[in-house]
Amino acid sequence: MAESSMKDPIIYTQLERIEGPLIALVAALPGIGFGEAVRVVDLEGRIRHGRVALLDGDKVTIEVFQGTTGLAKGSERIRFLGHPITITVSESIIGRRLNGMGEPIDGGPPLTGVALNINGSPLNPTARAYPQDFIQTGITGIDAMNALVRGQKLPIFSSSGLPHDQLAIQIAQQAKIRPDLSGSAKDSEELVVVFAAIGVKHDVAVRFAEEISGRTVSFLNLADDPVMERLLTPRVALTAAEYLAFELGLHVLVILTDMTVYGEALREVATARGDIPSRKGYPGYLYSDLATIFERAGRIKGKPGSITQIPILTMPNNDITHPIPDLTGYITEGQIVFSRDLFRQRFYPPINLPPSLSRLMADGVGEGLTRSDHHPLMEQLYAAYARAEEVRMMTRIVGEEDLSTVDRCYLEFGQCLERLFIAQDITDDRSIEESLDIGWRVLGCLPREELTRLSTQLIETHGALLDEELDQGLEREKD
């Protein structure tokens, strides 16, 4: 973070209060701004960074990013820097690994370039271009059923113990733009991944550092880092993404994990500030705070770059009505939901299709974008899977032997869809063509008269796939 252009030579040394990550003092200095950067030097000469969190007359409350452990009321030197919190960015940031405050931790040289405010600049709604153009993640449950398009924000709702970290790594490594599918993409266009891990354990951080490579920028905030740093990490990452997208014209995919940890950090700091709590103790401004992060995704008219977001959050007690997933769903354009039941059956990724949704999928798939059969095939698969779930419920009551022939076909279809279509290996990078072809083969479990959402022309075109013999793979290898 930049420390130049200090506007005031006065150094304050008397603190009134130290509480949690906050310190308070009296500063009779005109022009102190909300969110202004502050430098704190403790008795041992160690520098800590902070920002102005509250102004009440001449009383100033400061959030200290590195925590207040070891600070004393009369032994610190505090200076207001006259600018907001910034991160230094340039094209050379690609390939770097940084901490949650944007400082290098990969042993490389210090960052050089321009210093940008981590809060970003609000986008004029009229300047936004509508999200479009398909991004291939290599994950069938996303690409074929809940497609991601450039400029979209599509969160993943997971739970503790589910493999969302593995999926984040896989998407970071596999996500790509398909210029051969989209006429609006150029052959030279590549996808840059900005990966931000918030409050992760050391072993998880090591795994991210080892397995995520290539055209990526990684921000790693550890579980034992100060809580204030967790509030900065997504904003620092998005500032880097905005520079790459809107200044350099690159297409950027931002993966944020875990936004629930971010929300808990916000609750902790809000409690220390004395903010009035709302549901489950979270501050009443949780919605607007999350919106300042998620709404930084998108495309701008007249600029070639784009920012696409995949926020990942864990639902406490698998509760989708918890404030964080609940409010996230209002801000974003759909959600990918994980199923603990599928995970127990050893399916990866355990994507629960019925509650999953991509609201912008219809604008990013089809003729000239992916394939002409993409959207109708998705609708048919969803409809058939819903019927298969109904048959499963009925089977628990009447038993499988009393099912009709058609119902047994749906039961087989549900098993094949989960084992062959949704499930895939952690190294399996499926193209959208492969994913759609698997979908057609799975539909071969059903009589053709049941394919009511597919036109006769589509069925004739892809009839060979419907007639192929399915390797159902019902016998799994034992450990």
Provide keyphrases for this structure.
proton-transporting ATP synthase activity, rotational mechanism, elongated, ATPase_F1/V1/A1_a/bsu_nucl-bd, alpha/beta, about 475 residues, disordered C terminus, Thrombin, subunit H, disordered N terminus, about 20% strand, hydrogen ion transport, 10-stranded mixed sheet, ATP synthesis, ATP-synt_VA_C
Which helices and strands occur, and which strands form pairs?
Blueprint: E1 17-19, E2 22-26, E3 36-41, E4 47-56, E5 59-64, E6 77-84, E7 86-89, E8 97-99, E9 114-117, E10 128-129, E11 132-136, H1 140-143, E12 148-150, E13 156-158, H2 164-174, E14 176-177, E15 191-200, H3 202-211, E16 216-222, H4 227-247, E17 251-257, H5 259-273, H6 286-294, E18 298-300, E19 306-314, H7 323-331, E20 334-337, H8 340-344, E21 357-358, H9 374-398, H10 405-422, H11 432-443, H12 456-461, H13 463-466
Parallel strand pairs: 8-16, 13-19, 13-20, 15-16, 15-17, 17-19
Antiparallel strand pairs: 1-2, 2-5, 3-4, 3-6, 4-5, 7-9, 10-18, 11-12, 11-14, 18-19, 20-21
Helix pairs in contact: 4-5, 6-7, 9-10, 9-11, 10-11
Question: Any overview of this molecule?
Answer:
- Residues 18-76 form the ATPase F1/V1/A1 complex alpha/beta subunit N-terminal domain.
- One of its GO terms (molecular function) is proton-transporting ATP synthase activity, rotational mechanism.
- Pfam families: ATP-synt_ab (PF00006), ATP-synt_ab_N (PF02874), ATP-synt_VA_C (PF22919).
- By secondary structure, the protein is of the alpha/beta class.
- It has three domains: 17-84, Thrombin, subunit H, CATH 2.40.10.170; 88-363, 3-Layer(aba) Sandwich (Rossmann fold), CATH 3.40.50.12240; 374-466, no CATH class.
- Helices cover 31% and strands 22% of the residues.
- It contains 13 helices and 21 strands.
- The chain has helices at 140-143, 164-174, 202-211, 227-247, 259-273, 286-294, 323-331, 340-344, 374-398, 405-422, 432-443, 456-461, 463-466, and strands spanning 17-19, 22-26, 36-41, 47-56, 59-64, 77-84, 86-89, 97-99, 114-117, 128-129, 132-136, 148-150, 156-158, 176-177, 191-200, 216-222, 251-257, 298-300, 306-314, 334-337, 357-358.
- The strands form four sheets. Strands 8, 10, 13, 15, 16, 17, 18, 19, 20 and 21 form a ten-stranded mixed β-sheet that branches. Strands 1-2-5-4-3-6 form a six-stranded antiparallel β-sheet, with helices on one face. The protein has a three-stranded antiparallel β-sheet with strand order 12-11-14, with no helix packed on it.
- A hairpin with a 5-residue loop joins β18 (298-300) and β19.
- α6 (286-294) crosses α7 (323-331) and α9 packs across α10.
- It is elongated, with a radius of gyration of 25 Å.
- It starts with 16 loop residues before the first strand and ends in a 13-residue tail after the last helix.
- Mean pLDDT is 89; it is low at 2-6 and 472-479.
